[in-house]
Amino acid sequence: MSDLAIPVARTGLLIVDLQNDFLHPDGAYGRAGQGAPEIAALPERLKPLADLLRAKGGYVVSTQFTLVPAKGGEPLISPHLKQLRPFLGKGDFQPGAWGHQLVDTLQPADLSVEKIAYSAFYMTRLEWVLRKCGIERLIVCGIVTNGGVASTVRDAHVRDFDTTVLEDGCAAFSPAVHATAIDALRPVCRVASISDIMKEIEAA
């Protein structure tokens, strides 16, 4: 029997921040020499699951980190992010721009939501969209495990979504940081592998 108690049609693969500006060599992080092999490997690893979920009637939901352009196109950047990532500037993570988009490997997303902070639920329309589409179960993947992924998982949990985080579908800039973050999420969600979820969807 499948462990997928909630129907596939009410399941969403929630992709956190797998955008060109984070992953592509020509994106904001790539140009600054910021990256990690574990992060770069995620799109190809997740593609079979995304394709299967689409074919079975589920949703692929992309949440995309956004730097809102203000006067003159200069991005609104929080002080802590400006200190952490001083290379970010005009045009990076701008809505509608190539760098803001979900990476090609995982396109198309059924739903896309802009986000301005770590959690995809903070000051966004994500919860409203998920409820309107009847999505009850979230399978969370993306980057970084200790940032956007962890914050989004915890916020999904307190909103009573059935939440699973993919241990091999997330990554951080350090494998040790990733492992610590996954362990810290175990009390609030199920931790599973991509293979586990694919088997459950195929059997549903």
From TrEMBL:
Full protein name: Nicotinamidase-related amidase
One Pfam family cited in the UniProt record for this chain: Isochorismatase
Coiled-coil ranges per UniProt: none
Domain Isochorismatase-like: 12-189
Keywords assigned by UniProt, alphabetized: Hydrolase
Keyword Kinase in annotation: no
Single GO MF descriptor: hydrolase activity
InterPro entries to which the protein is assigned, alphabetical: Isochorismatase-like_dom, Isochorismatase-like_hydrls, Isochorismatase-like_sf
Superkingdom of origin organism: Bacteria
Presence of keyword Hydrolase: yes
